[in-house]
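User: Study the chain.
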Amino acid sequence: MPKLTKRAIESFRPDGAKTGTLYWDTELRGFGVRVFPSGRRTFVVKFRTRSGRQRWLRIGTYGPLTAERARDLAKIELAKVVEGKDPATLRHELRNAMSVSQLCDLYMEAATAGLVLGRKGLPKKKSTLSTDRSRIDAHIKPLLGQLKAKAVTRTDIELFKTGVVTGKSIRDEKLGPRRRSIVKGGKGALTRTLGLLGAIFAWGIDHGHVEQNPVRGVRRFADAQKKALLTGDQYRALADALRTLEQKRDRNGAPRHSHIGIAAIRFIALSGVRRGECQQLRWDEVDALGTCLALGDTKTGASLRPLSRAAFAVIDGLEPISDHVFAAGPEQKGYQGLPGLWETVQKTARLSAETAAKRCGEKIPEAGPLDAVTLHSLRHSFAGIAEQLGATLPTIAAMLGHRVNGVTGGYILKRVDSLLIEAANRVGDHIAALMRGEAPSAQVIQFRPRSRSVGPLAETSLSNGISK
């Protein structure tokens, strides 16, 4: 039997057996080619395991695979046999191994059952689970789901990065009446999705599904979340847009936009609460005197927050028709239309700016005053104004419900005293004045270096408004 070369393989003819006719290589024992009646030729390896069991392994088809390359691959597989391994079993295990899609399903099943811990060692919240599931369905499964979880490499993750950033997973599907599934890519989506993917692989290691985490060490883009702080003009544009929407009526004279949703946006601006906290706010979480909120379930757990009088005035004018403060829908649960309403607010502010520019004969602005602002920007702005008014970081954390490390921070976040309430009132009053178009007064302290010729009392000037 000759050495398996291109000329030799093409000269081989089948003997008519359905299973093909075997021709063995003279140089590499166990390496051969099977010639079928159809003319197809397949490279194979035959070997015995250390237990004496005879095994067969298909290398590949002649044509796409040359004789020289097939010989090299056969040597690799036969070397595994010398090391005591069973290449056929290894290939079978890999073929039947868990895919990334299946690993994600197992992870979500465990997370839904409360077996995957999040912040403070607590099970993940429903909102977090919903976000995780959305990122898995939008990015991970379409781009990585078909790969075997054990075989995913650093290169696969780098290709995944490129795919998400360049928009390979972008999708816009209509799911039904007034329902669409819109998936966007980008660096921000990638960064947060990589965090989830790394957590899934880490969980898989703990439960024996995979042996390594290919996400570990992968460089990520900075999570450039929009943290725009509203200016006085933007607060005024926000107030004008909300007022415009309140006044709009349909042909029957009914309000075109939900007064509950409009009140919710005002409340977020004047209190700094998160969107979800606003939507799920219950009347039994509001202090009877309107001085604080006792939120039972937030991003950081139970939270006690000071409430400004300006924010309380917004909800004090609502009718308590349900357990939820911002009740809406057939079941009178928390109002869920804030994202869509916020887009309407942005559009209304943009149209108002264009109308004002035309009236004054000025150039129409390319973007509206609120186009770069998100609902979460209202929370960031609340914190920014608190800082401008001289609030300390622990005080700001207490007003926003952020975690503060250390014993002192723990004490501050477990009680609300008159100083915290006063701080919240100052911030709320300041924002309310900006929304009315007023310029709130502020106490500004100017630093000047001390010298021998000037007395200490003359070095610092206090003024209401602009410092000297």
Q: What stands out?
A: The longest strand covers residues 41-48. The radius of gyration is 33 Å. Residues 294 and 304 are 5 Å apart (CA to CA). The chain is about 45% helix and 10% strand.
